[in-house]
Amino acid sequence: EPEYIVDAGANAGYSALRFKRDYPGARIVAVEPSPENAAQFRKNCAAYPDITVEQGALWPVSTRLRISNPDGAHCSFVVEPDPD
Question: Which residues does 33 contact at the CB level (< 8 Å), separation at least 6?
Answer without folding.
Answer: 9, 55, 56, 57, 65, 67, 77, 79
